[in-house]
Amino acid sequence: MKQFKRKVRENSPFRNRKSIAVFMYVLCFVLFCSLFFRFTWIMVRGEVNGEDLRLNVERLYTRNNVLQARRGTIYDRNGNPIASDATTYKMVAVLTDEWSTPNRPQHVEDPRTVSQVLSRHIAMGEEDIYNRLILDNKQVEFGNAGTNLTYETMSAIENELTEAELTGITFEESRSRLYPNGTFASHTIGLAQKNDEEDNEVQGVLGIERQFDDLLSGENGWIRNQRDRFGYIIPDQEVEEVLPEDGEDITLTIDRRIQIFLESIVEEVNQEHNPEYITANLMNAKTGEILATSQRPTFNATTKEGIDQSWQNLLVEYTFEPGSTFKVMTLAASIQEGTFHPNDYYKSGQIQVGGGTVRDVRREGWGTISHLEGLARSSNVSFVHQVEEMGHDTWKTYLDNYGFGTRTGIELPSEASGSNPYEWPLQKINTAFGQGIAVTPIQMLKAFSAVTNGGVMVDPHLVMNGEEGQADETSQVLTPETAEQTLHYLKETVYNENGTARGYDIDGFEIAAKTGTAQISDPDTGRYLTGAENHVFSVVGMAPADDPELIFYVTVQQPELNTITHGSQAVQKIFNPVMKRALEYYSAEDTSLDETELEQTKMSSYIDENTQSALAELSDAFVEHSIIGTGDRIVQQSPAVDSQIDESQRILLLTNGAMTLPDLTGWSRNDLLRLAELTGVNLSINGEGFVTEQSLTAGSFIETGTEIVVQLASNQ
């Protein structure tokens, strides 16, 4: 019995271990089953705690990228780009290896060889690049030399680095809007820019860019693919993609040749006389096409310099009392009504009418003179007689038919309607000579077209109407005979010995013209300002006088009379050279407005060509060109490949190696801006026109950031 009990006690631990083993087996089985069912549940349902695992994985590895639509290009009438989309690239070098793996290096491993490659494509020396690549930074950029790179340059760098199996150079893409002509009808062409740095969308905020923003913008696309944690695309996957729809291009009626010349002349007058406002607008007298338009204040669309001075487009938003240029419309109405009697006489000086006194500019008058002499001298009293004789109601009908107080509908935002109140007797009379009524320059151009177009007004417009030279006619307000007779009489102001427009005579061309000196109301008191400078001085010229092709309307408000005795002389400084140049371009003896004078062609590619070969090719073609640098190979060029150019454009070619400054004599502001864009030099440009002096001599070595001062002057 004792022996049996001892045996049981000896076997008790064994039994315990066996029980524990059984328990552990059962527990493991239960846990295994639980995990099995849990994993099965996850695999079947694809979610944990309400979170969709498949969506989480997709979010982790899937990339949705916007495919930007190209914004449409704005061209001038001859196909020269005025505003274009620019996709540029900034080059960045990764120097740290913390994002690299042994199999996939992300950083620069061979700075010496990389610097040799990069120096062949950007305007920076090999040693400068190498010194940046060995800095103790995580990454470095390359200043102006490594920004605003074209797609061609970026692709060439990538291809050469890939072939040499060199790593560490990345590119950041950015969209911008390029305005290659700088100050160039800036308020009319407008501005398109990104809302903020993070948003890559470019939106029109001014002028044509704003008015046609939907048409120019197009529709963005998108692409969806999967990438690994290093950012590489996972192969053999299905890629979802919706291609973008690019914006539509727009061709304007503006002529780049005359616009650039107009801007240079207007800027000279602006610098010399510092007026409050200048407007200068050239229109095709038959079709209403705006050929050139300028104003001051304005801004440089490339640099944004001056953008804070004024956002107002004076062509359509500037309302003012026009003064005596308005007498063109009064004269035409009076001829139409048979109340203009050129050889009848009247007493000049002043007249009591409408409960007030109307005076001529010379208060004592010129005695008893004919109405034809009154027109030549711009007598207010003469035109009062004409309105009184035709009747106030009849004159009001003409004012309405001319479109005053109504928007023209030109393709620009924020057009003002002006005002045509016509309430009080004296106010009605004053409209005869351009007081008591508020107009915009574009309304005046439209009304003038009735005289130049056989009595039929045309709608001024900026966008080409399908068929070039096609007019948008509005209404017949005068008979052809009246229009012809009006032009005949308006020659008196230019060629009569007493004419107020004698200073506007253009050699080689006969013109019809009318000057104006309008008073300016004080916004606080409502009274007219006093003083010789406090006027809006203006002129309208229509030429050739017998059958006008052009209407040129210029206003200069409150100029400083520092070197002149009368504000009209400031107007002459704009009108005479520009009208002469325009008539030389567009006169019937030279060429039609509907013809392109300069042959258009596409810009060839000189990238990677031998420098001497490119020089020989351009010289043989008699094309203006300049080489920047001492290298043996072309690395960048302007204009860009395939852009439309004409025979007047200068081609700039940047070589590898050290940069040298060309002879800038005769270069335009546009040429200088392209030079700065290519090289990164800082240009200080004084004056308008073409280069006459440069602070560094031709052949001097330059680099990014070099300061260069150039002096421009008109070449007329």
Strand and helix layout:
Elements: H1 2-45, E1 47-48, E2 51-52, H2 53-61, E3 62-67, E4 74-75, E5 81-94, H3 111-119, H4 126-133, E6 139-141, H5 151-163, E7 169-178, H6 186-189, E8 191-194, E9 202-206, H7 207-211, H8 213-217, E10 221-226, E11 240-242, E12 250-251, H9 256-273, E13 277-284, E14 290-296, H10 314-317, H11 327-337, E15 345-347, E16 350-353, E17 356-359, E18 368-370, H12 371-377, H13 380-390, H14 392-402, H15 425-430, H16 441-452, E19 456-458, E20 473-476, H17 480-490, H18 492-495, E21 512-519, E22 535-543, E23 550-557, H19 568-586, E24 600-602, H20 611-620, E25 625-628, E26 634-638, E27 644-646, E28 651-655, E29 659-660, H21 669-679, E30 682-686, E31 690-694, E32 701-702, E33 707-713
Parallel strand pairs: 4-12, 25-28, 30-33
Antiparallel strand pairs: 1-2, 3-10, 4-5, 5-6, 5-7, 8-9, 10-11, 13-14, 13-23, 15-18, 16-17, 19-20, 21-22, 22-23, 24-27, 26-28, 29-32, 31-33
- The helicity comes to 25-40%
For the record, the CATH class of the largest domain is Alpha Beta
Radius of gyration: 37 Å
Structural class: alpha+beta
Subcellular location: Cell membrane
Transmembrane segments: 20-44
Organism: Alkalibacterium olivapovliticus
GO cellular component, one term: plasma membrane
